[in-house]
UniProtKB/TrEMBL annotation:
Gene Ontology biological process terms from the UniProt entry: carbohydrate metabolic process
Residue ranges crossing the lipid bilayer per the database entry: 582-609, 615-638, 659-677
Region (Disordered): 23-66
Protein name stated in the entry: Glycosyltransferase
GO molecular function ontology, one term from the record: glycosyltransferase activity
Domain NodB homology positions: 68-256
Organism: Actinospica acidiphila
Matches recorded under Pfam families: Glyco_tranf_2_3 (PF13641), Polysacc_deac_1 (PF01522)
Family in the record: Belongs to the glycosyltransferase 2 family.
Keywords, ordered alphabetically: Glycosyltransferase, Membrane, Transferase, Transmembrane, Transmembrane helix
């Protein structure tokens, strides 16, 4: 429930931020769209009248600026870079301005609107998101104005009955659709402001050209001038005002507001307490969403860097690992391990799997002693194992005390110094045990991790896990092996030196990841842990999302438990300290932090597709996917796997990764709460199959 609440919050924040900050086309962008529209239906007194129109009367009323009167109007703001500079020029010359603000900019920069009002400037409405109102329905027009009024109420506690439609110019340029909107706005009590002179400052023709365009063509005539305080670099507009205002004053012009032209004191008014509170909530939501998205953006850079760093690091180290493995003998400096080894198989209600597992072990080309520890099964697992009558197999029956206790029982019963451990749902190849124990020729090696593969990879879920095992687990182990900080000997295929196990304290039930726990304990006890890539084991992966959730929830939670338990390795010396200062940070960054933040890539991709540049966003997402595809393809090549399943990688990134993210979030919250998660057992189906060498369709064992 909590992960879903967090997801809903992030989605809501992105939606608010996207709607309130999405870039809009400036007035200049709509000029071409309006060309050629018919002016039919526009009353002559409006088309040939003054630039201020009150369409709420019949007939409509229009107003002009009196002689030698200039109204300076500014569209598209407020803007944190240019609005304060324009206001400073106007205030210094004691000149009022009329600022037609958009709701988006008002909600994002409420302090700028308050500053304009405190300085005595006039505020008008320029819609919320700057659409061409002539192309909108009446409901859409009403929403644009309502949101803008809400932003004004929250920002400054005011509303305005003065409006300028986006992409409008002189009354003579009105067409039929835009006049329909004007009449609708007039009916709602709005006074519409058009212009006499458009300086086209958006085209940056130069400060002098802007100033010249604002001077009335007919000396002494009153005029309403269009300028902009947002939508781009407005430095030329600021410089133009520095010369324009003194120039007009010297020519005997005075400066006024639209309200004075209409004959009223002001076109803005206060709002009641309820409306002000609603506006405050709205503006606060926009502020919070903006801050949150800024943080998410910074985190995205971190995640992107970590993902790329992980890919580069894994590819580089895996390539080096493969080259070294080809050059050096697989055995260590000591004599080859040819003596028999013990194999411990813990089993709890594994009747459907145990036969296939034991038959694969008996077929090993390394002499083995097999100890099956039945951990209180009630489905006849022990009877089924004994009924097979396989040579070298001993079945121990114990009360149900958990996997760690069952493994310890098997180790104590084992006759040999090297003990191989595997889950009862796992199938070994004939050479797996031999390859697994080869590194023990080096007396410093305390354990080896084998190469676990998905044995039931049919179906989409199986393919996704197959890709994950090859790319996410076995490619990682090559990296960890080269850095000598292997964090986990997988329970599905691993081998241990009994002496090393005893010095590390044996298997512990302190965590739900006993394999990770004991591996870290071995490092802290000074033992090397190696990766035996040729020791291949085929294990049964969860066949349903519910089973997968339970398994990964236990893995994630158990890994966090183990990392916390062995955190003191960070300050220890020798091999323990190396693992603590290299292995633990890598584990925290690449197995907890990066997967936890990775969904930001997908969420912000959706954000970019809806509110940003769809093409650029899609290319960025495909770029990340391509990098991961390269890693996956190389991992498949190293593992000798055919690349056919990689067609499912894009879908895995969209669906499977989100499930893993939710699991990890829940595991983190469980760990933070201190709750002791019970063991999550997976229901077996016994459908593990081993593909023949060289790929192809799987065959049964």
């Amino acid at each position: 429930m909590v992960p879903l609440v967090l997801l809903a919050f992030v989605v809501s924040v992105l939606a608010v931020e996207g709607y309130t900050s999405r870039g809009f086309a400036g007035d200049q962008e709509g000029r071409g769209e309006r060309a050629g529209r018919s002016g039919a239906g526009v009353p002559p007194e409006v088309a040939g009248g003054g630039p201020v129109v009150d369409a709420g009367h019949d007939p409509p009323r229009t107003y002009r600026a009196p002689p030698r009167t200039v109204v300076l109007t500014f569209d598209d703001g407020p803007d944190p870079a240019w609005t304060p500079r324009i206001r400073e020029v106007l205030d210094r010359h004691d000149v009022p301005g009329t600022f037609f603000v958009t709701g988006r900019q008002t909600a994002r920069h409420p302090d700028l609107v308050r500053d304009l009002i405190r300085s005595g400037h006039e505020i008008g409405v320029h819609t919320f998101s700057h659409p061409d109102l002539a192309t909108q329905s009446e409901d859409a027009v009403d929403r644009e104005l309502a949101f803008t009024q809400l932003a004004l109420a929250g920002a400054a506690g005011v509303h305005s009955s003065l409006v300028r439609m986006p992409y409008s110019s002189t009354p003579g340029a009105l067409d039929g659709p835009s006049w329909t909107v004007a009449r609708h706005l007039g009916g709602k009590g709005y006074v519409l402001a058009f212009v006499d002179q458009d300086t086209r400052d958006w085209s940056r023709p130069g400060a002098r050209a802007i100033a010249d365009a604002a001077v009335p063509e007919v000396p002494g005539r009153g005029t309403i001038v269009l300028l902009h305080d947002s939508g781009g670099d407005r430095s030329q507009t600021v410089r133009a005002l520095e010369t324009l205002v003194p120039r007009l004053k010297a020519d005997g012009y005075r400066f006024s507001t639209v309200a004075e032209l209409v004959g009223v004191e002001r076109l803005t008014g206060g709002v009641d307490t309820a409306e002000r509170w609603r506006g405050w909530v709205f503006v606060t939501a926009v502020t919070v969403s903006g801050t949150t998205v800024s943080v998410l953006g910074a985190l995205l850079l971190v995640v992107g860097g970590l993902v790329l760093a992980r890919c580069v690091l894994m590819l580089g180290l895996a390539h080096r690992h493969a080259r070294l493995a080809r050059r050096r003998p697989r055995a260590g400096p000591g004599p080859p391990v040819t003596r028999p080894v013990s194999v411990v198989v813990p089993a709890y209600n594994e009747v459907v799997c145990i036969g296939k597992t034991l038959r694969s072990l008996v077929a090993s080309d390394q002499p083995v002693e097999i100890v099956v520890v039945d951990d209180g099964s009630d489905d006849g697992t022990a009877d089924a194992a004994e009924a097979l009558g396989l040579p070298g197999v001993t079945v121990l029956r114990t009360p149900n005390r958990g996997k760690a206790a069952a493994l310890n029982t098997g180790v104590l019963r084992a006759s040999h110094e090297i003990v191989v451990m595997l889950d009862a749902d796992t199938v070994f190849e004939p050479s797996t045990v031999r390859h697994l124990v080869e590194p023990f020729a080096d007396p410093s090696v305390g354990a080896t991790a084998g190469n676990a593969k998905v044995g039931n990879r049919h179906g989409m879920l199986g393919r996704w896990q197959h890709i994950e095992y090859v790319m996410g687990f076995n490619l990682d182990r090559r990296m960890y092996d080269l850095l000598r900080c292997m964090p986990t000997v997988p329970g599905a295929v691993g081998a241990f030196r009994v002496t090393a196990l005893r010095r590390a304290g044996m298997m512990s039930g302190d965590t739900l990841a006993e394999d990770t726990d004991v591996t870290m304990a071995l490092h802290r006890a000074g033992w090397d842990v190696r990766y035996a890539e040729h020791a291949v084991a085929w294990t049964e992966a969860p066949g349903s999302l519910r089973q997968l959730w339970r398994q990964r929830y236990r893995w994630s939670y158990g890994t966090m438990q183990a990392a916390w338990k062995h955190r003191h390795a960070l300050v220890e010396r020798g091999h323990a300290g190396r693992f603590g200062r290299v292995g633990l940070p890598l584990l925290a960054v690449f197995q907890i932090l990066t997967p936890l933040l990775a969904p930001l890539i997908d969420l912000l991709t959706l954000y970019g597709l809806v509110f940003g540049n769809p093409l650029l966003t899609a290319l960025a997402w495909l770029g990340v996917l391509a990098v991961q595809g390269v890693c996956a393809a190389y991992a498949f090549r190293l593992d000798g796997e055919p690349p056919r399943p990689l067609w499912a990688l894009p879908v895995q990134q969209v669906v499977y990764r989100q499930v893993m993210y939710l699991v990890l979030v829940q595991a983190c919250l469980t760990a933070l709460s201190g709750y002791r998660l019970p063991w999550q057992r997976m229901k077996r189906k016994g459908n593990v199959v081993v593909p023949p060498r060289g790929g192809g369709l799987p065959s049964g064992v």
